[in-house]
Amino acid sequence: MIAPLTWSDGRLLMLDQRVLPLREKWLELTTHEQVAARIRDMAVRGAPAIGVAAAYGMALAAKNGVDRDQAHQALAASRPTAVNLFWALDRISAMVSWQFADVLAEAKTIEAEDLAMNQAIGRHGADLLQPGWNILTVCNTGSLATAGHGTALGVIRTAHVQGKGIHVYSCETRPRQQGLRLTAYELIKEGIPFHSIADGVAGSLMRAGKVDCVIAGADRIAANGDTANKIGTYSLAILAKYHGIPFYIAAPTSTLDPKLATGDLIPIEERSGEELTHMEGVQVAPAGCPVFNPGFDVTPGTLIGGIITEEGVFRQPYQFK
Ligand code: MRU
C-alpha cells in the first residue's frame, strides 16, 4: 500500500504528490516550516494526510526546540478548509508534554488511528454497494490522501477486495487533476477497473444510466451534514439527485466539525489563478486573465444519502456524537 508520509531517522519523508504519477520523488523534511510550506503547495494533500503531516510537523518543532504555540500557528496557517489539520494540531497542543519523544509518539498514534478508521470506513461503505456497480468519484481520496487505504477510495478498495466486481469512473478534477494523476495512479496499482473522465462527462454518464452511485470524500462536515469537499462535488450531488442516484460522503470522524452549525461557516480556500491559467508551468490563458479559483465547495447535507464514518453510516437528520 502506498503511504504518503514516513517518519525515518529523525526526518519526515513525504512523497511529493505534485510530480506524481510521472515521478516518485521523496522529500526529506526536518523543520515544521518546511512541513507547513509543503502542505500549502500541496506536496501533501487530502484532509487526513494534511492532519498527519501537521502532527509530524509538530514533532519536528519539538525536536528542534521551537515554541509549541509558534509551531501550531505556522502549521495552522498553511491551508484553511480541511479541519483534520486543526484537529491534529489541537490534539498535540493539548498534550501535557512538549518532549520530542512524546510528541512523535502522538503523531504516530494519529497516523495509525487514521489508517484504522479508513479500514472501518471501507467496511461500512462496501456494505452499501451492490455487485457490479459503476461508482463515480472525484479528486483523490485514497492512500495518498490519508495515512493509508483511503476514505471514498477506501470504500472502493474494500469492495474490490471483497470481489464485488465494481467499476469506477474517476473525475479528472480540474484544475489540479488529483483524479487524473493520483486516483488513476492508485487504481492502476490496485488493479481496480476504471475509466478516467473529464469533469464535464459526469452528467451525460448519469443520464445514460451508467452510474449507480457517487462517493466523495470530505474536508469538513458541519453539524447539519453540510460537507466541504473538492470543488465540483456540489455539482455532482445535484446531478445525482436529478438522476435519482445515491450520493455518499466517506470521511473519518476527525473530519466532523459539529461546532459549525452549517456549511456556510466553513472557510473555503481560494487558490492561485495560475492553477487555471497555466498547465505544467506553461501559460495557456491570455495574459492578465482574471480567475476565480476556489479549492472547495459545500454540498448541503440534504443532498447526501449517508455520511460513511468509522462509526457507521450517519443519515439525516445528522446527529454526530
Ligand atoms: O485540495 P486537496 O487535494 O487537498 O483536496 C482533497 C479533497 O477534497 C478530498 O476529497 C478530501 O480531502 C478527502 S481526502 C480523503
Structural summary, described in words:
This protein is α/β, with parallel strands linked by helices and 321 residues long. The protein has helices at residues 32-40, 47-63, 68-76, 83-93, 100-126, 152-161, 178-190, 202-207, 233-243, 274-277; strands at 5-8, 11-15, 26-29, 134-137, 167-171, 194-197, 213-216, 220-221, 227-230, 247-250, 278-279, 282-283, 296-299, 306-309, 312-314. The protein folds into two domains: 5-118, Four Helix Bundle (Hemerythrin (Met), subunit A) (Up-down Bundle); 120-314, Translation initiation factor eif-2b, domain 2 (Rossmann fold, 3-Layer(aba) Sandwich). The strands form four sheets. A seven-stranded mixed sheet has the order 6-5-4-7-10-14-15. A three-stranded antiparallel sheet has the order 1-2-3, with helices on one face. The longest helix has 27 residues, at 100-126. The radius of gyration is 19 Å and the shape is globular. The mean pLDDT is 98. It binds 5-S-methyl-1-O-phosphono-5-thio-D-ribulose (MRU).
Number of domains: 2
Structural class of the helix and strand makeup? alpha/beta
Q: Strand-residue fraction?
A: 15-25%
Helix content: 25-40%
Q: CATH topology of the largest domain, which one?
A: Rossmann fold
Tell how many strands the DSSP assignment holds: 15
As laid out across the biggest beta sheet, the strand order is 6-5-4-7-10-14-15
Which ligands accompany this protein?
A: 5-S-methyl-1-O-phosphono-5-thio-D-ribulose
Q: Regions with pLDDT < 50 over 5+ consecutive residues?
A: none
Q: Overall 3D geometry?
A: globular
Mean of residue pLDDT? 98
Q: Tell me the name of the CATH homologous superfamily of the largest domain.
A: Translation initiation factor eif-2b, domain 2
What's the number of helices?
10
CATH architecture of the largest domain: 3-Layer(aba) Sandwich
Main sheet summary:
7 strands, mixed
